[in-house]
Amino acid sequence: MSGGWESGHYQACSVARRLPLQEPYRWDSVASASRIAMKVRYSMLPYWYTLFANASLYGSPPIRALFYEFPDEPELFGIDNQCLVGRDILITPVLTPNASTVDGIFPGCGRNIGRDWYTHSVVDTTAGANSTLDAPLGHINVYIRDGSAMLLHAQPDYTTAETRAGPYSLLVSQASDGYAFGTAYVDDGESVPPTPHMTLTFRARKGKLTIAAVGNYDVEQKLEIVTVLGARSRQPREVKLNGKKADS
Predict the structure, then answer these.
(1) Alpha-carbon distance 84 to 105, whole Å?
(2) DSSP class of residue 70?
């Protein structure tokens, strides 16, 4: 795991014996913020794993400047207080002490819809300009890009091994036209490549979600939860899996 918004949180608490003890559990507010951040971190592990696999295979950076994904927006060239994790996660950290809000720009010139990671609600933003966002103490501002589909761990556990053994979830954030796309690279998480692996491709369009698998790795964990954001306000009449009606 890397990235300024998380790496500092997971560094050793005391780097010298002369410093006072700083374990997170010594303060209730810090302990609570730590639990929330670690839950997000563990749930995102399949997404991070895919990013690092793509970095190894194709050279694409896991953490990106905003202009990397939006090179036609010159207002993003000087942005150094926000970053993208892959193409689908926007981080807007608080860098000023004692601040309760933070200013951040949402790229896409108003074409994209940003959704809050925690609530899944659409964020009210100003196209091409900074928006002021709530940032209470202990909160990390994380946003989901529309048109994305991310494989996640459904039940973050005490360790990464226990988390990997649990079921998956799929988070689909549809664009305004109903389209979403994403991939996931899955292997045993321990062996040195080249090893058996599976690449999953997720596509959503016109009320239909398809998952295609290519590879020679047997994924034992089940896909337990599928969350689709941006669906029309009308409830779906039925849900089908492989052409058969799925139980609710």
Answers:
(1) 12
(2) -
List strands edge to edge, sheet with 89-92: 63-64, 83-85, 89-92, 141-145, 114-116
Q: How far apart are CA 180 and CA 40, in angstroms?
A: 22
Structure tokens at 60: 């694409």
pTM: 0.87
What is the SS3 string spanning 196-211?
CCEEEEEEEECCEEEE
Exposure string of 202-232, with b = 16+ CB inside 10 Å and e = fewer, is: bbbeeeebeeeeeeeeeeeeeeeebebbbee
The answer on pLDDT for 217 being more than 60 is: yes
- Tokens coding 217: 């790795």
Query: What letter would DSSP give residue 122?
Result: B
